[in-house]
Design goal:
The protein is mainly alpha-helical and about 425 residues long. The chain contains 12 helices and 6 strands.
């Protein structure tokens, strides 16, 4: 965790953090100042060099701080009875270590700002999807080869945009898109998954298992590891062919479809013998998954009825095929050949930042930060500082990480 050392002998205001609209506080005193909207941390001191880090969550109002004579809303030279911090801040560090003080903005104001960001994100995602779907449908409806070819290009672009819908649903899976309104949060997650055909409840169940048991051992949530009774060239070749199919030919998507069908229809006793991911899968969860799956089928049935089968194939089926291929390519790039151990939050890597992919996939390249703290919203992942690779330039790019998977799986002998 990095701190910025700031000398404030002349009672300067500490500046330099990102803007948080709507936050205004006033420090009272003989030479008090009002905070501007773009300040996240501030204090007055006398001859003390302090460190600030806006990462803690604290709540306090009008607390008298008699133990900290150099950290108050007034100058340290004033009488102790006037030393009152009139703000929504609290001292977080040790009273004996004045070299480290930590403050945060008002949680209510920050939540309001987060809600605005989430609403804009949902609007952008759905509007662009609707425009691409409309353009593809119109072009595919003409009996012209050139317009149909252009419709195919729009269809491929639509398949790429389905990745955005899936990542947006990922925010809903973690209940952090609209954390103060879980019903609306889950409704949006269900809505954006309709074109993909994925039930939100099953997505959440699998994803929570992934976070809780990611590469815990060779047989648990380690998709690039195959366990064999004996190792020889034939077994190695077979496992490598299976892995290549899974990564480069959409096999992971086919595997996920089979998994969804097991969640929906397989008996509970059978599921427990397959994988621990099916544990605690209740009938209530299954009924909800049936409803969500039926809504996905209904969504595509309505599209077929409105657009016709030919147009639906270009506007919905081909984009889904493109999505399936891209999803399989990048499913395991953040965990491929990463450490295996009980500290599951560390068995992951981040990839090199890319402005376009960061916008499209909501900073999913900062995957180690996400695994370290899954509650962080997408726009706070860059610079979170939890990546095992401190030097961003040493990270792989997304393309390099995809191609690296051609080396094949790890094969271990059964003990």
């Amino acid at each position: 965790m990095k701190y910025r050392q700031v000398s404030v002998k002349s009672a300067e205001l500490f500046r330099g953090y990102a803007p948080i609209p709507g936050i205004r506080r006033r420090y009272s005193g003989r030479r008090g100042h009002e905070l501007s909207d773009n300040l996240k941390c501030v204090t007055y001191v006398s001859g003390i060099c302090l460190s600030f880090h806006p990462s803690q969550i604290i709540k306090v109002r009008h607390r008298v701080l008699p133990s900290f004579p150099n950290c108050t809303g007034r100058f340290a030279s004033e009488p102790a009875k006037h030393r009152r911090a009139r703000c929504n801040h609290e001292y977080v560090g040790s009273p004996r270590r004045l070299s480290r003080l930590e403050f945060v903005p008002s949680p209510v104001a920050e939540m309001k700002d987060h809600t605005q960001i989430s609403v804009k994100l949902v609007a952008e995602t759905l509007i662009i999807y609707s425009l691409l779907l409309l353009a593809t449908s119109i072009l595919a409806s003409f009996d012209d080869h050139w317009l149909n070819a252009l419709a195919v290009l729009f269809s491929i672009t639509l398949g790429l945009w389905l990745e955005r819908l899936f990542v947006l649903a990922h925010e809903c899976v973690h209940k952090k898109l609209l954390p103060d309104n879980p019903l609306v949060n889950d409704f949006i997650g269900w809505l954006v998954l309709l074109p993909v055909g994925a039930p939100l409840s099953i997505y959440r169940k699998i994803h929570y298992f992934h976070h809780g048991f990611n590469r815990k051992d060779h047989s648990t949530a380690a998709l690039d590891t195959f366990i064999a009774g004996t190792r020889n060239e034939t077994i190695t070749l077979v496992f490598k062919c299976i892995w290549i199919y899974y990564v480069f030919f959409g096999g992971f998507f086919v595997h996920s479809v089979i998994t969804v069908l097991l969640f929906l229809f397989a008996p509970g006793m059978l599921l427990l013998g397959i994988s621990d991911v099916f544990k605690a899968w209740t009938m209530k969860m299954r009924l909800l998954a049936w409803v969500q799956t039926a809504s996905c089928v209904a969504f595509h049935a309505v599209l077929v009825e409105i657009l016709g089968l030919h147009v639906w194939c270009l506007a919905a089926l081909l984009p889904l095929a493109v999505f399936a291929w891209l999803w399989s390519l990048k499913l395991y790039i953040y965990h491929y050949r990463q450490p295996i151990g009980l500290d599951v939050r560390r068995n992951v890597r981040s990839l090199k930042p890319n402005r376009f992919l960061g916008w499209l996939l909501l900073n999913f390249n900062e995957h180690s930060a996400h695994h370290f703290d899954p509650t962080l919203p997408w726009y706070k992942l860059p610079g979170a500082g939890h990546s095992p690779c401190e030097n961003v330039q040493e990270r792989m790019s997304v393309i390099q990480a995809i191609l690296q998977q051609a080396a094949g799986p790890t094969i271990v002998s059964r003990k």
